[in-house]
Protein: Peptide/nickel transport system ATP-binding protein
Amino acid sequence: MSRDEAVPGRDARNPDDGLTGDDAAARDGRGSTPRAAAHGDETNTPTRTPLLSARGLSRRFVSPRENLFQPGRVTDALKPVDLDVYEGDTLAVIGESGSGKSTLVRLLLALDAPSSGTVTFDGRAVEPGPAAKLRWLRRETGIIFQDPYASLDPRMSVGRIVAEPLTGLGIHSEGDHRRRVVEVLEAVGLDAEAASRYPHEFSGGQRQRIALARAIVHGPRLLVGDEPLSALDVTVRARILDLLAELRASLGLTLVIVSHDIGVIQHLSNRVAVMTEGEIVEQGPTTRVLGRPEHPYTRRLLSAVPTLDA
Structure:
């Protein structure tokens, strides 16, 4: 997979992630609005089978009791929700901080055990358990975390970081690892020489490219981003958003993007689920939910959250 095949139209040698604000925009004549528009907003028909599905999924936390006479406080981080993600779609899960978005993602990927409900991936039950039991799911999924500074081990070279899924899943030989690492680094706009360097040598946007390379190196079908853009400068954020759209198209990825920034989501997703207080209060095609919101919370969110173009 050459850089041209993986990411059409991108100059992989000059991602300009070290620049911020107007300087980066002036460098290539672009503003902060991504080039890539969201793909079609078709309504899913009953004949389609979800790639990822949740039914009655919930998570309750009980804090330790304060004394012998008072039980621990119960927190419903996620109330029972139903959710379907269809192959080829980009689903945005939006809501303010503390709404349950990250809890939902952890349950969908079996990074935590639900209090109730079920999750299936391509018709197969997803159940938390030992790493060996979940290897099949890890092979099918990749995740990008919020903080590009905390999610990369500073003691490891970029090459080792990106190759982690290949090593952990037993994919390919060591020589194949090196070739594959170079391929995905170039696909996300970094040169091959980046493999021998360390995370502290890169800007925040470049680190998130490294995290993205690690998330796709093993060829997953589903890519999940848990607030992957919120820690970045607005212009760098737009570039990473462009890159996600390009990789979705070139690799045939299904995306689930968690965010509280509606301005980001409207450029990438074709479906939206709106969360507040641990519940999904509205979901549907992006154009409908953002253009004609039905729930009062969605309307408040649309009027209050800053957008990428602000």
About this structure: The longest helix spans residues 234-251. DSSP finds eleven helices and ten strands in the chain. Residues 50-304 form a domain with the Rossmann fold fold (CATH 3.40.50.300). The chain has one domain: 50-304.
